[in-house]
Amino acid sequence: MRRSSVAVPIKNIERELICPICKELFTHPLILPCQHSVCHKCVRELLMLNHDDSFDAGSECSLPGSPRSRVPSPSMERLDRLVRSGGSRGSISSPGWRRGSVTPRVTTIPCPGCQHDIDLGERGISMLFRNFTLENIVERYRQAARAAVAIMCNICKPPNQQEATKSCMDCKASYCNECFKLHHPWGTPKAQHEYVGPTTNFRPKVLMCPEHEMEKVNMYCEVCKRPVCHLCKLGGSHANHKVTSMSSAYKILKEKLAKSIHYLISKEDQVRTQITELELLISQTEENGQLAERQANEHFERLFETLQERRSEMLRSIEQSRNRRMEQLRSQVEEYQGMLENSGLVGYAQEVLKETDQSCFVQTAKQLHVRIQKATDSLRTFHPAADTCFDEFVLDTSREETLLKEMCFGGVPDPPLIDLSQSKVYNEASICWRLADDHLPTDHHVLEYLKPCEDGEDGGLWRATDRVYGSNTIVNDLEPDSLYSFRVRSCRNSMFSPYSPEVAFHTPPAPVFGFLLSDKCGFCTERLVLNKRRDAVESVAGAAFLLAAERVQTGSYISLDYIIGDTGISQGRHYWALKVEPHSYMVKVGVASDTKILEWFHNPRDTSSPRYDHDSGHDSGSEDACYEVSQPFILLTLGMGKLFIPKASSSTANPPASDTGNRVLPMPHRLGICLDYDSSRVFFYDADTMRCIYERQVDCSGTMFPAFGLMGSGKVQLEDFITAKRLTF
C-alpha cells in the first residue's frame, strides 16, 4: 500500500477539506449552484429543520444503502455553528413537498460559504452533483492521516485477512493480490474492470446527469457553469444556453487552474511579505488599543482627582460656615440666658439696686442700664444671630452630569435631532431625524421610545428599534391616547453618539380613519377644486362671491359649498386630522349623516336669509338654537386664522376646558376630529398637542361621513395617513 508518499503534499490543505457547516472533513460533498461544497448530510439536516418529509431517495447523490429511516437527526450543535459562522443572512423556506403532493417543491437554503440564498429548484438536492474530485482528495488525506493503518482485503477472512493492494471501482471492494486474481481472472469480463490503489472511496465510473439519471454528462454549459447531458441541451433547461464539449471545457479549465496556481506560487514571496505586514498590523492594533485604554484611564483618574479636590474644598466651606453659625447662635443663647431671673445679669442688677450710696449707684447703674436696655430691645425685635438655611451651598450638577454623559471619543458622531415637522404619530409613529450639516457618514441609527408611567414619571423601560440605515423609521403598535417619548442616536465604528434631545408625541384617542374626498355628493365644480389625490379641496371665491360681497358685509351670507369623505362610519371610534390654510375665509368641519345630507340637498334653503349660517363667527347668535337642527353637519368653524366655538345652545355641548366662555380661539396648525359613533359624540383636538378643544353630542343616525363646508377662498388638506394605511396591509 502507498502510505506516506501522499501525506506530505496534502498535509497543509486540511482547512480546504472542512465542511463549513459541520466543521468536519467532507462526507459525500455536493456542489451548490454557487460552486461551494457542502456535505450531503448537512444539506439534508438544513432542509429537515422545517419538514420531515422534504427529500426523496434514489437520486444519484443519495447515499447507497442509506434508507430514509436511517437518516440521522439534525445536529443542533452543528447548525448553531452555521448560524454563528454567518448563516443568519439566509433563510430556509418551503423546504420540500410530501410525496404525492401537487404543490411544487421549492428549496431555498443559505450557502455557508458566500452567505447567499441558494434556490435548489423543484427537485431539491437531487439536482446537485457529487463533488467526486473533492471526495478523492479527502480520501487521500484520510489515508495520509492514518498512514500506519492499512486497508484490509474485503474477501479474506480473519485471522488470515491480508492487506489490500487494489480496489475495484466496478465491484466497489478492495482485494489483496491473491483475491484479486481469483475474482478477476484473465479472459473474463471482470478482467476489464477499472482498479486503483487501495481506497475506501468508490465512485461511479461515469458522472451521470442528475436531471436525466440514465444519461452520461458529456457537455459543459457555459451559462450555468456546470456539466450537462445531451438531453439537457436538446429540450431541457439548457436548451438555449451556450454549451461546449466536455473535453474542451476540461482543457480550458485545466489551463486556467494551472495558470492560477502557477501565479500564486510565483507570488509566494509577496504573500509571505503581506502576511508579515498583517501580523505587524495586528501587533500595532493590540499596542494602540492598550495605549488608548491607558490614556482613557489617565483622563478618568484626573477627573476623579479633580472631583475629589473640589469635593474636599466645598465640604470644607460648608463645615466652616456651619461652625461659624453655630458659634454665633451659641453666643446668642448665652446672652439670652443672662436675661433670666437666676442668671448673672439680672442677679447682678438686683444686687446693684441694694446700693444706698447715690454716687456709687449712679456710677454703676449707668452702664448696667445700657446693657439691660439692649437686652430689652432684643426681646422686642428677636432675630437669630445666624441663618439656619444653607441654600447658598446647594450644588447644581445637572450641567456637569450632562457633560459627563456626553463625554465621548473624538471619533464619536454628533447626536442627530428629531425633526418635529416631518415626524408624525398616529397608531404608528413615523419618526424622522436630521444630522449635522458637517457630519461624517454613520453606520446606522437606533431609535428608542418610552411610554411614561401614569404618575408622570419615567419609570418604564426604553424600547429600541432594530438598526436603521436611513434617517427615518416607523414604530408600530402604539397605544391610543398615550404620551410617548422618543430619542435617537447614531453609531459609527461601533461607537455611539449621545442621545438626541427627547421629544414627546401624543397618540390619537382612536384608530386612524383613512378616507379621501368624494366629488359625488353636493360637489360644486364651479367653486371647488379637488386635487388628483383627492386629499385636498380648495374653494375659489370667483365672481359670484365678489358680487355678493355687500350682502356678506351686512350679514347676509351666500351658500356654503359642501364636500364629504368617500368612506362612512357606522360603528366604533375613529380619528382623522386635517389642516385649514390660515388665509381661508370660512371653513366648517365636522360629520354628517347620510340621511341629513340627502334631506339637505333635496330641500334647498333660502341662501339670502341672515339665518342661513348660524355660527360663522360673524353673526349675532340669536338664531343658533332655531337653525342648528336643520344643518346637515356644521359643528365647528375656522377662518381668518381663528377658530370659532359654537354657542352652548344645547345641554350636550361642552366648551373647551381651558377657554370656558371664550368662543374665539387661535386656529390650530392641525385639527383632529374623533367620532365616537356608539356614544354619539364628536371631539375636536389640537392635533399637535392632542388637547381637546371642543366636544358635543351628535345624532348618529345611519352612516356618518366626514364633512366640510367652504365659503369664499380657502383650502382644506387632509392629513397624510399613507404610512398608517400601508402598515395595515
From TrEMBL:
Entry-linked InterPro entries: B30.2/SPRY, B30.2/SPRY_sf, Bbox_C, Butyrophylin_SPRY, ConA-like_dom_sf, COS_domain, E3_ligase_FN3/SPRY, FN3_dom
Pfam family, one: COS
Keywords: Coiled coil, Cytoplasm, Cytoskeleton, Metal-binding, Microtubule, Repeat, Transferase, Ubl conjugation pathway, Zinc, Zinc-finger
Domain annotation COS: ranges: 353-410
Occurrences of domain RING-type (ranges): 19-61
Occurrences of domain B30.2/SPRY (ranges): 495-726
Subcellular locations according to the entry: Cytoplasm, Cytoskeleton
The Fibronectin type-III domain, residue ranges: 412-510
MF GO annotations: ubiquitin-protein transferase activity; zinc ion binding
GO biological processes: acrosome reaction; spindle organization
B box-type domain boundaries: 204-246
Coiled-coil ranges per UniProt: 268-324
Keyword tRNA-binding: no
PROSITE patterns: B302_SPRY, COS, FN3, ZF_BBOX, ZF_RING_1, ZF_RING_2
One Gene Ontology cellular component: microtubule
Family of this protein: Belongs to the TRIM/RBCC family.
Name of protein: Tripartite motif containing 36
Species of provenance: Oryzias sinensis (Chinese medaka)
